[in-house]
Amino acid sequence: LEIDRATIGERHPGYATHLNNLAGVVRDQGRYEEAEGLFRDALEIDRATIGERHPDYATRLNNLADVVKNQGLYEEAEGLFRDALEFDRARIGEMHPGYATHLNNLAVVVNYQGRYEEAEGLFRDALEIDRATIGERHPGYATHLNNLAGVVKNQGRYEEAEGLFRDALEIDRATIGEGHPSYATRLNNLADVVKNQGRYEEAEGLFRDALEIDRATIGEGHPDYAIR
């Protein structure tokens, strides 16, 4: 960004891209308010340069929605996710992996608002697109499968949810590996549904494994560590 300022300037699409990337890493450290400001700055530059009909604009909008969601502002986040999907339909179409990702993100925030049936339908739609595009052995597929498992669990179908969580973990082992923060997230989710079925000792072991991965990756000062 410092080089950008001295060369292309702060109103260039490339500057917006790098600002968006900085926002992403700030968000991943749990500094959500700061990340939100950066995402909004990137979007403002995009509006004035590439315009709101560009595929990158939908991506940035989705990123902003995600960090708004992380701060518990679910209604606002839902509106932003729906806007991003609208742009996607017009530019990349509904059978694109990016569309599946944004559909999945909308489903997450719908799930958080307790509309479980609606969220499940959206998650299944995203997975259907994934199967036809990136395939069932992709980390993105594992993410969407994990999210489907979560909403199935929220409806009290614990056994079904456990199977889906285990499928997602199996894909993760073969792709991102067991030392990745996302693997810890999936492990935590599996532990939760095991706990819901009364298998407390097994669940405790899984929670502890997730914490061990977190210590080595995101660190003990991250909000996700506190959740585990």
DSSP summary: helix tally = 12
Low-confidence stretches: none
Largest sheet entry: none
Structural class: mainly alpha
Q: On the 0-100 scale, what is the average pLDDT?
A: 94
Question: What is the highest CATH level, the class of the largest domain?
Answer: Mainly Alpha
Shape: globular
Portion of residues in beta strands equals under 5%
The N- to C-terminal Cα distance equals 34 Å
CATH superfamily of the largest domain: Tetratricopeptide repeat domain
Kindly state the percentage of residues in helix: over 70%
Notes on the structure:
With 228 residues, the chain is mainly α. The chain folds into 2 domains: 93 residues, Tetratricopeptide repeat domain (Serine Threonine Protein Phosphatase 5, Tetratricopeptide repeat, Alpha Horseshoe), CATH 1.25.40; 109 residues, Tetratricopeptide repeat domain (Serine Threonine Protein Phosphatase 5, Tetratricopeptide repeat, Alpha Horseshoe). It is built from 12 helices and no strands. Helix 5 runs antiparallel to helix 6, helix 6 packs antiparallel against helix 7 and helix 9 packs antiparallel against helix 10. The mean pLDDT is 94.
